[in-house]
């Protein structure tokens, strides 16, 4: 994600309502294991008594689209551009990396080697269960390759 461009290089005063949050890891064992940065799409806070006073009882819906879809729709809606003026092609705001399926086993081996298995990402029994499932899937794939 090109957050610097999203936040600072726009040719507008409109804010893209995306926030990156670095949580306090020590307070939450799940976050402590993940050691990541979270992205959050801002929504307007609405209080029930305000909706009722306006006789509008519908609640704003939290959208479930992916982050790239939310950003693109917002940029299109507000006609936001970034980068240098008069440039036809702008740098992407979000990068997608496509990894060849042939590399999945070597990437999995590397992640396990550096301690980034499911047991580290998901705490407790669920993480251990997911790690075992991943290991079984990996071993089955390796058997298929060795035939």
The major beta sheet can be summarized as: 2 strands, antiparallel
Number of domains: 2
Shape: extended
- The span between the termini is 40 Å
What's the β-strand tally? Answer: 2
What does this structure look like?
- There is one protein chain.
- The mean pLDDT is 79.
- The protein has 147 residues and is mainly alpha-helical.
- The protein has a two-stranded antiparallel sheet with strand order 1-2.
- It folds into two domains: 3-78, no CATH class; 101-146, no CATH class.
- Helix content is 46%, strand content 5%.
Which tags fit this structure?
147 residues, mainly alpha, two-stranded antiparallel sheet, 7 helices, 2 strands, extended
């Amino acid at each position: 994600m090109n957050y610097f461009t999203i936040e600072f290089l726009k040719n507008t005063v409109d804010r893209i309502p995306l926030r990156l949050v670095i949580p306090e890891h020590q307070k939450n064992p799940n976050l402590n294991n993940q050691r990541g940065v979270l992205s959050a799409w801002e929504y307007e806070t609405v209080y029930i008594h305000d909706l009722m006073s306006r006789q509008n009882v519908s609640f704003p819906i939290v959208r479930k689209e992916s982050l790239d879809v939310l950003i693109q729709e917002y940029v299109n809606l507000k006609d936001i551009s970034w980068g240098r003026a008069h440039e036809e092609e702008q740098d992407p705001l979000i990068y997608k990396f496509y990894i060849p399926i042939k590399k999945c086993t070597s990437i999995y081996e590397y992640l396990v080697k550096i301690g980034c298995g499911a047991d580290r990402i998901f705490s407790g029994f669920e993480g251990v269960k997911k790690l075992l499932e991943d290991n079984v899937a990996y071993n089955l794939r390796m058997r298929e390759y060795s035939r």
